[in-house]
Amino acid sequence: MEKLSDLEYLKLTKAQKFFYRLKLLITGFPSWLLGLGKALLSFLKNIILNIKNEFLDIFLTFKNGDFKTKLSYLFMGFGSIARGQILRGLLFLIFEIVFIFYMISSGTYWLNKLMTLGTKGPQEVYNEKLDQYVMTYYDNSFKILLYGILTIIFIIAFIYTWRLNIKQNKISEAIIKSGKKLKSSKDDLRSLVDDQFHKTLLALPLTGIIVFTALPILFMILIAFTNFDANHNGYSNALFTWVGTSNINQLVTWTSGSSNFSATFGEILTWTLIWAFFATFTNYFLGIFVALMINKKGIMFKKLWRTILVMTIAIPQFISLLYVSKMFSNNGIINGWLMDWGIVGLDSRIQFWENPTLARIMVILINIWIGIPYLMLIATGILLNIPADLYESAKIDGASTLQQFQKITLPYMLFITGPYLLTSFIGNINNFNVIFLLTGGGPTNQAYTTSGGSAGYTDLLITWLFKITTVDSNYKLAAVIGIAVFVVCAAISLFVYNILPSMKNEEEFQ
Amino acid sequence: MSMNNNEKRHMKQSTKNRISNTVIYIILILMSIIWLIPFVSIVLQSFRIESTLQVGYVIPKQWGLDNYIKLFKETSFPIWYLNTLFIALIVALVQTLVVLSMSYTLSRLRFKGRKFLMNFMLVLGLFPGFLTMIVLYTVLKDLNMIMANAVPGLILVYVASSGMGYYISKGFFDTIPRSLDEAARIDGATRFQVFYQIIMPLSKPIVIYTILTAFLGPWGDFIFARYISNYNSSGMNVAVGLWSWLQKDTIAQKYTLFCAGGVIVAIPVTILFMCLQKYYVEGVTGGAVKG
Amino acid sequence: MKKLLSVFLSFLMVVSLSACRPNEEGSTESETTEEETTEETSEETTAAEYSFKVWCADNVVDLTKSQLDKFATDHPEYALTFTVEAVGENDAATSMITDVEAGADIYSFAQDQLARLVQSNALAKPGVKASETINAENDASGIAAATFDKELWAYPLTSDNGYFMYYDKSVISEEHLGDLTAILEDCVAANKTFAFEGTTSAWYIASLFFGTGCVSEWNMNGTDIVSYNDTFNSEEGLIAAKGLKEIVTSPAFTSSSGADAFSANPAAAVLVSGTWAYSDVEAVLGDNLGAAELPSFTVDGNTYHMGSFSGNKLIGVKPQTDAEKAAVASQIALYLTGEECQSERFDAVAWGPSNKKAADSDAVKANPALVALAAQNEYGVPQGQYPGAWWDIGKAIGSAIFELGADSTDDDLKGVLQSYSDSLASLLTVDPEVARAWTVIGSVQGGDWSEDIEMVEDPEGTWTTADLDLKAGEEFKVRQGKSWDANLGSDGADGANFVVEEDGTYQIQLVVGDDWTAGTVELIKK
C-alpha cells in the first residue's frame, strides 16, 4: 500500500484519515509480526549474551576481588559491613539468613510438592469405639500451588539480590581504588527522600499490587491448566493436579450442538461486545447532549438539573439498581401503573425481564440512567474549555447550531476524549454491577448450558465468570474465561492504540 | 413604521430561542422526573408500616418510623454500617496516600523501569478484577481475615490494589509545570521537600477527588465483600447485607427494611458527594481528558 | 542502594505470606475465632471442652440458641461453647462448598444441596447408632432426603419442603379448584396473576412432568454421575410441556414464588409456594387465604394432576478431625432434630416436622398449609438427589417455552425437550460406554491380574463371559471400565476376591443392580 506524505495526510478528511490508518494497520500486520519475531529473536540473543556476561563478571569479580569480596560470595553483605556500609551489609545479611531459614523450614516442602500438587487427599476413617466417621486432612493443592509460586519468586529474588551484593562489592572496590569515599548509611537514608525518592514512594504501593494483584493473576493463569473444580477442591474432597491444556481446548475446539462451551462463549462474547458498544456510545452522545442543553445560554437552574442527575452517581448502585430491577418486574410498580392507567392489560403486561430482546434493551436503557451523569460532568468540563471565539466566528459565518456542533463541538470532544472512550469501552465489557443487579444474567437461555454451568441472555463474560466461580465452583473454567476476557480487552486496546492518534504520546500533554 | 430587517431577524431568533429553551426545559423536567422516581419511591417505601413486603403502590397507607427503629434494634444493619464506615474511612486515608505517591512518582520522577511499570499495570488492569478473588480469599484466610473478621481483610484488598488507580491523578500532576520542581531543586530542596512543600499545596482538587472516590468505593462494593465475608453476617458490609435481604426467602419480611437501610446509606453518601461535587467534576474531567 | 530496598520489601512480603508453615501430616483444622458465645456450662475442670459453630435460618436463631443451651445443661460432662449464626439454608450450602474448613460444624440446608455437599466432603456420615435412631424416628421422605448413594448423610429437620397452592378465596371459586384452566380463567377475569415459577425454577417446572408420569432419577457414585433415567423427553413429557405452555403463556402468568405476589400490582390470585410463605401470605390475604393441593391440567381431553417434589430440610455435621468432638456434634444434631426440638420449632415458626411423633400432634394436623401440603404430597415425588446442573438445565425448559410463546407447535416443544435431554447427556461424568464395559480380571485363565476378560451384555441387563476353564483356588473380581473405581467382589462392592472352589468350565455372569456400579455375580458351571 502506498504511503502518504505528511502533507497529503493532512489534506485528508477525518473519515479518510481514519480509513487510511485502518488500512495501514491491516496491511502493516504481516510486517509487524515479522518485526515482532525479529525483536524476540534478538531479545533472546541478548539474554543469552547477558547471562554469559553475568557469569563472566561474577567469575572475574571473584578472581580479582579482595578477601572481603570473596567472603561476600558466601556471606552476603560481608564486604559492605567490612567497608563500613553497615546498613547495606546488614540488609543483605538479614535477607540471606531469612532466605535460608525459610527454605529449610518450608520452602523446600512447597517446591517438592509443586510438580504433583500433592499426593495424599483427605482420608475418612471409621472410629468404632465412638461410632464416628473421622476425617484426616493431608495435602492442600491450593496452598501447594500458591506457596510453591511464592517460593520460586523468592528464590529468584534471592539470586538477584546475591548478584546485587557481588556487584556492590565490585563497585565499592573500584570507588576505594579511585580514592573516593563510600556512601555512609546516613547518605543512603538521605537518598531515599532525594535521588531514590521514587523507591520510597513506590515501595508500598508496588508491594501491594504485586502481592494482591499480580501474583494472584499469575496463580489464576496456572489454575487454567489444572482440574480445580467442585469435584477436586484441593483440600476437603480430592486434590487437583496439572491437566495440561485440556481446559483451554474446551474453549477453542468448536463442536456443534448444545452444551458446548466454545459456542456459548462465542455467543456471550458477541453480546458482551454489542452491550459494550451501545453502553459506551449511548452514554457518550446522550451525555454530551444533556450537557449542551444544561449549559445553553438562558437555561436557568443549571445547578439544580446537574444535582438531580448526579444522584445516580452518588447513590450506591446496589440500592438504585436493585430497586429499579424490582420496579420493572412483570408484577412490579411500572406494570402496575401501566395497568391502572389502562395502557396495558393483564395479557399485555410488558415482560421487561422475561423477554430476551427486551431485557437486553432494558439493561442498555437503564445503563443510560446510570451513565449519562458521568458524561454530562465530563462534557461540561470540556465544553467550557472550548475557546469561545471559535463559536463567535462560526456564528458570524452563519453556521447553525447543528453545524456548530458538528464542526466544532463534536470533533473537539472526540479528539480529547478518545482515550476515555477506550477505557470506558473496556470498563463496559467488565461492567458487572448493571447486569448482575438488574437481571442476574437472565432470562435463562437453554442453548447456554455448558459443562461450566448455565448462562442467560444478558450475561456478560464477567457475570458468567462470576456465576461459574460462585455457583458452580468450576474454578478451572473461570480461569479460562478470565484469560479470554484479558485477550479480548488487550486485542481491542492494541487495535485502538494503533488507530487513534491522540493515544500515542504521553509526554505531548506536558 | 415598519421594522427594519435587522430587528426582524432579531425577533425571529429570539422566538426560536424561546421555543428551543422551552423544549429543553420540558426535556430536563421529564428527565428529572425519571431520575427521581426510583429514589423518591425508595424513601416513601421506607416509611410504609402496614406491611413489610413489596406492594403495588408507592405512597404508604400508614406512615411511620417503624422500619428505621427495627433496622437499628433488631437487625445486623448497625454492624454492617459501622463495618462499612470503618472500611471507608481507613481506605480513604491509606488509598489516598498510595495513589498520590504512585501518581506523583510516575508523573514527575524519571527512573529506570518507569515505562515498564506503567505498561505492566496497564496489562494487569485488563484482567477482570475479581478473577483473583478465590486466591485472595485463601491468602486472607491464612491471616484469619475472613468471614466474621472480613473487615481488615477487605481493607487490605482495597488498599493493596489501589495503586493501579493512579491514572487520573497522574494526569493532574502532568499539568503542573515542571519548571516549579526544577527551580526548587536548584535551591537545594530534596525531592521529598518538592513533593511535600510545592506539589501538594497545588493539588487540593485532586487530593479531595481521590479521598472522595476512595471513600465512596467501599459503600458499593459487593463482589469482594460478599466472597470474603462468605455469608457471615458480622463480616458483611452494607451492600452485601442489604442485598441478602432481597433474596427469595427473605424479601417478604425485609423489603421495607431494605428501603430504610438504603435511605440511611444513601443520605450521608449523597450529601458528601454533593458538597464535594466540584472536585469530583474536576477529577473526572481531568481524567477523561487525559484518559 | 541499587534497588535494594524494593528487593528487601518484596522478600518481606514473601516471608510474611509464607510465615505459615506447611500443614504437617494430618493436621487438624484451624478454628476461626468465635465471636458470639451463648453459654459456657459446667465449671468442672475435667469436662472436655468443645466449641461449635452452628448455622441456622434467620428466624430460628433465638430458638436454636435456647435449644443448644438446654443441651449444654443436660450434658454437664462437656464444656460446650456455641456460636449460632444466621445463615439461610441455601447460603449455608454455598458457603460450606466455598470453604469447608472455615464453615460451620453444624448447619441446616435444603435437601437439594445434599449432592453438592457430599461432593465437597462437607458432611460427615452419622454413625451406625445415630443412623438407627434417624431411621426409626423420621418419616420415609425425611430418610430418603438424607440418603445419598445408599448411605445416610444428614439428619432430617423438617418434612415440609414441598409446594402447593395458595389462593385468594375472593377470586378463585371453590368448584374451580381442581382445574387449572378454570383457575387461570378466574385469574384473568379478575385481572389478577397466577404466580408460579414456571420459567425460573426446575423445582416447580418438574411439577407438570411428574404429573404426567415422567421421571428423572439420578444415579451417582460418590461425586460422579453414573447413569440416569430421565423421561422428560417423551410423549408424556410433551403433554407436560403443553401443560407448562398453558401456564406460562397465560396472560395471568407471573414467575414468582414469593408471598409478595399477593401484594404486588397486578396482584396474584394464585401462588404456588411452600409452607415458609404461610405467615406472609396470611398477613396479606387474611380471611381470604386458601391453601389447596395443585390443580389438574387437561391436554387433548385427558386430565393430569400436577405433581410436586416433596422435600425436606436437613441438618448436616461437618467432618471433624477429632473423634470425640465428632461424637458430641452427632449428639447435638440428633437432639436438634429430635421430637422435642421439632415440636418447639413447629410451635414457633410452623415448620412441618419430619419426626413421626412430632408430626402426629393435632396442631400439626390442623395447620392449613401443612394440610394442603399433605394433600399435594399424595401426588408428590420424594425428592431424590440431582446433580447441581440439573436445576439449571431444567429451568431452561420453562424459559424456552415462554420464549416460544403461544404460537409454538408440538415440534417446537419437542425441540425444547430434545435440547434438555442433550444437555443432560453431556453431564455424565462416567462415559456411558465405560459404565457398560464390565470385565473380569484375576488369576484365572493363566492371567495375573493384568488382562481383562470381556463380558457381553444381553438385553435383560446381564453381562456374561465366554466359557472359561477355571481351576480351584483361582481368584478374580469383576470391574467396570477397566478401572478399580467400581469393582465387585464376593461380598459386594470393593469386597474380597471371588475364589473358584472346584475345577471346571464356567461362565461368569453379572446382573447389574439399579445402581450401575453394583450388582450380583454368579459362577455358572457348564
Walk me through what this model shows:
The complex is a heterotrimer of chains A (510), B (291) and C (526). Chain A has helices at residues 6-11, 14-27, 29-64, 67-72, 78-82, 86-114, 141-177, 185-191, 197-223, 246-252, 261-295, 302-314, 317-327, 333-340, 356-385, 388-396, 401-429, 432-438, 461-470, 475-499; strands spanning 123-127, 132-136. In chain A, β1 and β2 form a beta hairpin. Chain A folds into three domains: 6-56; 65-244, no CATH class; 261-504, MetI-like fold (Orthogonal Bundle), CATH 1.10.3720. Chain A has 20 helices and two strands. Chain A is globular. The longest helix of chain A is centred in the N-terminal third of the chain and has 37 residues, at 141-177. With 291 residues, chain B is mainly α. Chain B has a single domain (76-287), classed as MetI-like (MetI-like fold), CATH 1.10.3720. Chain B contains 14 helices and no strands. Chain B has helices at 5-46, 66-74, 77-108, 114-125, 133-142, 150-160, 167-174, 178-186, 191-202, 204-220, 223-229, 238-244, 251-275, 277-290. The longest helix of chain B has 42 residues, at 5-46. The radius of gyration of chain B is 25 Å and the shape is flat. The relative contact order of chain B is 0.14. Chain C has 526 residues and is an alpha+beta fold. Chain C folds into three domains: 48-159 and 311-357, 3-Layer(aba) Sandwich (D-Maltodextrin-Binding Protein, domain 2), CATH 3.40.190; 164-310 and 387-429, Periplasmic binding protein-like II (D-Maltodextrin-Binding Protein, domain 2); 432-525, Immunoglobulin-like (Sandwich), CATH 2.60.40. Chain C is built from 18 helices and 29 strands. In chain C, strands 19, 20, 24, 25, 26 and 27 form a six-stranded antiparallel β-sheet that branches. In chain C, α8 crosses α16 (388-404). The termini of chain C are far apart. Mean pLDDT of chain C is 82; it is low at 1-6, 16-21 and 23-45. Chains B and C meet through α5 and α13 of B and α3 and α10 of C.
Spell the H/E element sequence of chain A.
HHHHHHEEHHHHHHHHHHHHHH
Beta percentage of chain C is 15-25%
CATH top level class name of the largest domain in chain C = Alpha Beta
Oligomer: heterotrimer
**How many H/I helical runs of chain C?**
18
Q: Please report the total strand number of chain C as a whole number.
A: 29
CATH architecture call of the largest domain in chain A: Orthogonal Bundle
How many H/I helical runs of chain A? 20
Overall SS class of chain C = alpha+beta
